């Protein structure tokens, strides 16, 4: 069995992704050995991925008054989002988890992970595609967290880097935002959409994506710890590109109370791997897309099933 060096502090999502990556490459060995795979047409090198231009996928901002709030610039939208984010992370509620009373954020969300567009040498293979759901299902179980970026559902524990980063406050800036817009829902609520700028290998709270989403952190460092993996040429930074691009947050706010009523965060990540050697495979290219979603509020059923939490 492949030897994988442990990495302290590695997130559950991060573990899932690099195990999928190993499975993807090892599955190729089996496929090559037993059959000639049926493949789709190759994907052009400039379609998506790190080489694609960072373009807006949401409507552009239009200055105006929405839900009684005046927004004259992107800066106004981001400042209001930060205000709303910080306020909602002061709100708590009482829960029962495993029979014990707990105080968590009032607004708790679910999480979901999917892996799409698994390609080797720019081609899709049904055997590999069928492998991924079983790997995901056995390894990834959704957690319960506060508004992203967040590392916990307990406000007292929602920090990173040994308490140096306080996730109870948003550190998003207007410079982090590629596009945003505001919609008046006509009922005293507004819906804000924010698309942060693209980022290669995003780190928590350290860049546009990391200040808005629950990013995966140092995946390349994790992959580098796999003993059976090497690269036929170049460095891991050159051959393992993790591109965060196109993800959007959609947040519905009651402007009278500043409470977030509903929110959806979709983080999109494209990973390109080049010149990979695994076992008998030599100098192979692979890629995959990761779609990571957080929805607020999480349903009662989700809280109970995942963490035995009741409101």
What does this structure look like?
The protein is an alpha+beta fold. It is built from 6 helices and 16 strands. Strands 5, 8, 9, 10, 11, 12, 13, 14 and 15 form a 9-stranded antiparallel beta sheet that branches. A 3-stranded antiparallel beta sheet has the order 4-3-16. Strands 1-2 form a two-stranded antiparallel ribbon. Strand 8 and strand 9 form a beta hairpin. Helix 1 (12-34) packs antiparallel against helix 3 (126-139). The longest helix is centred in the first third of the chain and has 23 residues, at 12-34. The chain is globular.
Distance between the termini: 44 Å
| Radius of gyration based on Cα positions | 21 Å
Largest sheet: 9 strands, antiparallel
Low-confidence stretches: 1-10, 32-51
**Count of beta strands:** 16
Give the integer mean of the pLDDT values: 85
- Treating each run of at least 4 consecutive H or I residues as one helix, how many helices? 6
Q: What percent of residues are in strands? A: 25-35%
The amount of helix comes to 10-25%
Write down the overall geometry: globular
The H-and-E topology, N to C, reads as HEEHEEEHEEEEEHEHEEEEHE
Specify the structural class: alpha+beta
